[in-house]
Specification:
Helices cover about 75% and strands about 0% of the residues. It is mainly alpha-helical. The protein has one domain: Up-down Bundle (de novo design (two linked rop proteins)), CATH 1.20.1440.60. Helix 1 runs antiparallel to helix 2, helix 1 packs antiparallel against helix 4 and helix 3 packs antiparallel against helix 4. It is elongated. It comes from Hymenobacter glaciei.
Length: about 120
């Protein structure tokens, strides 16, 4: 069992979820039940799956939840790219968030791979 609150990847995922929530506040009300809902769900899924997986009894289970978290991170990346295409946020905001998500994806991949050897 891992203490998820001490994992750098979980902290990064929490920061990313907070940043996504802030971006969502800028989106038009027409996206409340569409893009906003999807983005918030995906952003929250990442740290939630890291936390859930860390409490599982085996590294294999933890790896599976990290994989799910990674999938949510890629889903969120796509939604942010759409946000940029729809001109709902500045290119600077978009670039910053996309860089955060890229780092998060790499961290998830690295942690997942490190658990194979244990």
């Amino acid at each position: 069992m891992h203490n998820f609150k001490e994992l750098h990847v979980w902290k990064k995922a929490m920061d990313t979820a907070q940043a996504v929530h802030a971006i969502c506040q800028q989106l038009p009300d027409a996206e409340r039940y569409g893009l906003i809902s999807q983005m918030r769900r995906a952003a929250i899924s990442v740290p939630s799956n890291i936390a859930e997986g860390s409490g599982r009894g085996s590294n294999a289970d933890f790896r599976r939840f990290l994989s799910i978290a990674g999938g949510s991170a890629y889903e969120l990346e796509t939604q942010l790219l759409l946000t940029g295409r729809f001109n709902y946020c500045s290119q600077e905001q978009l670039a910053s968030l996309l860089m955060q998500i890229s780092e998060l994806q790499k961290m998830l991949y690295g942690l997942r791979n490190s658990l194979r050897d244990n």
